[in-house]
Amino acid sequence: MLTNGSYLLPSLARTSPLLPFFVKIPLPLIYRRSRRHCRSFLCHCTSFSFRRPLLDHISLGRSSMGRSSRFCTLALSRGTSAPVSNPISNKASKKARRESPEGVLRYKLDMCSKNGNVDEALRLYDEARSNGVPLSLHHYNALLYLCSSSSSGSGSSGELSGNGVLDLGLKRGFEIFQQMVLDKVVPNEASFTSAARLAAAAEDPERAFELVKQMKIFGIPPKLRSYGPALFGFCKKGEPDRAYEVDAHMVESGVAAEEGELSALVKVSSDAKKGDRVYEMLHRLRAAVRQVSEATAGVVEGWFESEEAAKVGEEDWDVNEVKEGVKSGGGGWHGQGWLGTGSWRVVRTQMSEKGVCQSCKEKLVCIDIDPKETANFASSLTSLACQREAKADFVRFQEWLQRHGPFDAVIDGANVGLIKQRNFSFFQLKSVVDQLRQISPSKKLPLIILHKSRVTGGPAQNPRNNKLIEFWKKSGALYGTPAGSNDDWYWLYAAVSCNCLLLTNDEMRDHLFQLLGTSFFPRWKEKHQVRLSVSTKGPNLHMPPPYSIVIQESEDGRWHVPTITGDDLETPRQWLCATRSRNTN
């Protein structure tokens, strides 16, 4: 609905005693791109009640100063114009911005965010408004973040604690979000997410979900954190169907649930006695998470120990269908539903070196990796490496590898030479090289990746070490990465492209490896990473397990769930083993 260029924006009709300000927030909020979206949404929201125009004469077009309009709490009067000033240097300009009232406020709010001080932030906000200081998107987001954090119980807030902080965060947070709209400051994903957290803290997941829907309609892609308040809120209130709606919206938006979300969905499904949904969520955990936290393990245990779990399951099933399901899924699961009848027996256990469950004696399987996936991963790895390394250097390495490869094993030289050592040890590295050569099918030396500085300086200058280095070089078994490079890219690419073993104790969890995604890389690492322990007897190699450390569903309906407790190197990994009295057909 449009009247004289003003938008009659909808407000949510339903009220909540904890949302005296929030219910007045006009949604949709100002859309920055075109009038068409506002018109289409107003038609879409005919079920909402409307109130008098709140934001009149909002310019949604491009301003002469840039691609989008910039809003603030103070507008220049029509009869004035900004004086023309002499050009100033960038340094002076930055200093002026920092020392301006807006810049000082930004710095102080950032400090409040860092320290979790909501009291001081609200005092600064009130002071700024009384002094007419314009507030930007950054200011509002800092305030909303602090209010939502205090409402959810995280962070500190000066002298207030407990319910006082909660009520203060809720009331002022809703008030600030409304003022942000009144000031014509266009919200972004962070603004919406903070508002959704406020709604969840007020035990109103419905409102939180509505905010996420608004984001999508107005072209702001929701993130996983945007959905959390609604999803966890519905799960906490025991509303599984509404939680499934949020989950479906996430899938539609291309947002993948992680362990926390899937664990919550397992629990709400278990509590609601929805066995088919529990089954679905366990398989999603298998695909997305592989090893579960102790908290999730407790949720899974709770399901198998429940009365409802004992009731679900097929007593007579088609063995051929199950086998076909295992084959089509790549092994380790069949997806045909719960098999067997009767109560479940759930125990914590361990696997033998060969992958045999110490409780039920089931042998776990090793799930194969599609060669096409490996080739695609190597291609994406090359692309990422060339973006972050000097392209000419990395291409030179690829050409070198083509000439000297393939290898049966690749060694992260820096990592191996420093394990349990104060200084880099070529003696330890040589011992490991010899061990890998002995177990190599071709008896070929493994590829050693070392930074150039370690090949030419420090312990490398020792005559004995220098002789060893020259031998490795002449054998085509040593590659020195150039100055300024990250050798992680080199040893990882070499191992992937050769499809061989990789010796490193690097857990590969930092930013570089996060770029590689969470689907293929953990599976590849599990099947190819060799780890090293060092004792008084020397270095010991720990080969990849002959089974996949992932949730497995056997052909007779047993379940094995690996946890993150234990690392199989110093402490055996803990598994959940779930069997029932009738797991045979």
From TrEMBL:
Domain PROP1-like PPR intervals: 94-310
Localisation per UniProt entry: Mitochondrion
Catalytic EC class: hydrolase
Catalytic activity annotation: Endonucleolytic cleavage of RNA, removing 5'-extranucleotides from tRNA precursor
Pfam families: PPR_long (PF17177), PRORP (PF16953)
Record flagged with keyword tRNA processing: yes
One BP term from GO: tRNA 5'-leader removal
Cofactor: Mg(2+)
One Gene Ontology cellular component annotation held by this UniProt entry: mitochondrion
Annotated TM spans: none
UniProt KW keywords: Hydrolase, Magnesium, Manganese, Metal-binding, Mitochondrion, Nuclease, Repeat, Transit peptide, tRNA processing, Zinc
Keyword Manganese: yes
UniProt source species: Parasponia andersonii
Name this polypeptide is given: ribonuclease P
Superkingdom classification of source: Eukaryota
InterPro entries in the record: PPR_rpt (IPR002885), PROP1-like_PPR_dom (IPR033443), PRORP_C (IPR031595), TPR-like_helical_dom_sf (IPR011990)
PRORP domain sequence ranges: 351-577
Documented EC number(s): 3.1.26.5
NCBIfam families for the chain: PPR
